[in-house]
Structures are given as C-alpha cells and as structure tokens.
Amino acid sequence: YLFSEDTALMATEIKDPMLLDVIEKIKANPTELTGSFEYKDAAMGASIACYEYINEHGWAVVSYDSEDNIFAMANKSVMVLGTVCLVFVAVICLVSWLLIRVSTKPLGYAEESISRLQSLNLKKNHKLDSYIGKKSEVGKIATALDSLYSSLGDMVRTLSDCSDSLNESAVKMTDSSEVLLSCVAENSTATAQFAEHTEKIANTITHVD
After folding, report:
1. pTM for the complete prediction?
2. Residue 123: how many CA atoms within 13 Å on its side-chain side?
3. Nearest 5°: CA angle at 86, between 82 and 90?
4. What is the pLDDT of residue 39?
5. What gap in Å lies between CA 174 and CA 130, rounded to an integer?
6. Strand arrangement, sheet containing 45-54
7. Rounded to an integer, what distance in angstroms lies between the CA atom of residue 88 and that of residue 90?
8. Is 136 helix (H, G, I), strand (E, B) or coil?
C-alpha cells in the first residue's frame, strides 16, 4: 500500500483479494490503463471497483465502494425526478381541467338557451352575447342561436299582429251582423204591418161588394 484510508495498512503487503485481483488484471493486460469490475465484499456485500494504472511508476489507483452507496445518489435523483414528474403531471392535469372547463362553459349557456326554446321561452340568453359573431365553434353556435331567437321572435310578432287584425275584423263583423239583424227585424216588422194593412183593405173591399 502506498496510500490508504486506513493508515495502518500503508507500506504493508497487499492481502485484500479485490486488490490482488486488480494486480492480476493489470498483469494480464498492461496496456489497459483503466478498468472496472464487480465483486462480493464480505463486509459491504455487492460492490464495484474501478482502477487506473500508472504505467511509468507501476502504480494503480483503486477506488471501490458498495453498490448501495454508489447508486444511493442515483436512486435519490430518481426519486426526486419521479416526484417532480408527478407534480408536473398533477399541475398539467389541473391546468387542462381548468382550460377545458373554461372552454366548455359557453356550451352550458347554449344548452340553457336550447332548453328555453323547448319551453317556448323566446327571451334571449345574454350570456352568449360576447360569443356572437366569433369564428370559434362556440361563436358559430351562439350566432346561430341568436338568429334563431330573432327569427322566432319576428314570427311570433307577425302572428300576434295577424291575431290582432283578425280580432278587429271579427269585432267589425259582429257589429255588422248586429246591424244586419236589426235591419232584418225592422224589415220583418214592416212586412208584417204591410201584410196586416193589406188584409184590412182586402176585407174592406169584400164588405163593399
């Protein structure tokens, strides 16, 4: 050992099987200056060793540790990354839900307007006024509903005017019928009187004869 964390090992003979294995690997391939391998340590369990061979001095720098310690930071990073991804997914879902809710809210107004038409309520839903004339799908629906409401309103007003005219004509016809009935009654009375006078005259002429 030239250097070691355990100062008691410095300048002593190497007996660690892992280090002896590193020496054997270097002897087997002296031109390969770096390498790594996995091994089973009696104290740490599954471990990984990395070495770098310094050819001009015949030294080898060896670094080793257990797999748990080596991958602890990577595992921690994976956990942090997983947590961040979950947070981002939750935020994206929330934002998407809000956007969908805001985007589909006018469709609720359109449904409400259609329900009003079904109930023959021709009062316009002014919640759709801000969407009328726009090129979006909601704008097209709002524009169509506004036109439908206007057309139905005009039809109802026309029918109402016609009904008023018919009522007025009916009243005039009723008045004319009453006048006609009165004239017929008067004519009937005059005819009866004329017939009575004619009969009297006829009777008088008969007596004269």
Report:
1. 0.41
2. 2
3. 170
4. 86
5. 51
6. 34-41, 45-54, 59-66
7. 5
8. coil
Q: pLDDT by residue (tens digit) across 100-134?
A: 888 777 777 777 777 777 667 767 777 777 777 77
Write down the residue that tokens 């004519």 correspond to.
Answer: 187
**Is-contact 40 9, C-beta < 8 A?**
no
Sequence-distant (≥ 6) Cβ neighbours of residue 25 within 8 angstroms? 32, 35, 37, 51
Contact 65, 47 (CB under 8 A): yes
Distance CA 69, CA 77 (A): 13
45 CB-near residues (< 8 Å, 6+ apart)? 66, 67, 68
CB 110 within 8 A of CB 141: yes
Q: 3-state DSSP call for residue 62? A: strand
* Per-residue exposure over 180-189, b if at least 16 CB sit within 10 Å of its own CB, e if not: eeeeeeeeee
Tell me how far apart the alpha carbons of residues 43 and 72 are, in angstroms, rounded to a whole number: 18
pLDDT band with cut points at 50, 70 and 90 for residue 54? confident
- Residue pair 21/31 in contact by the 8 Å Cβ criterion: no
Residue 183 token pair:
């004239």
The Cα 75–Cα 157 span in angstroms is: 76
pLDDT digits (tens, 9 = 90+) for 132-154: 777 777 777 778 777 777 777 77
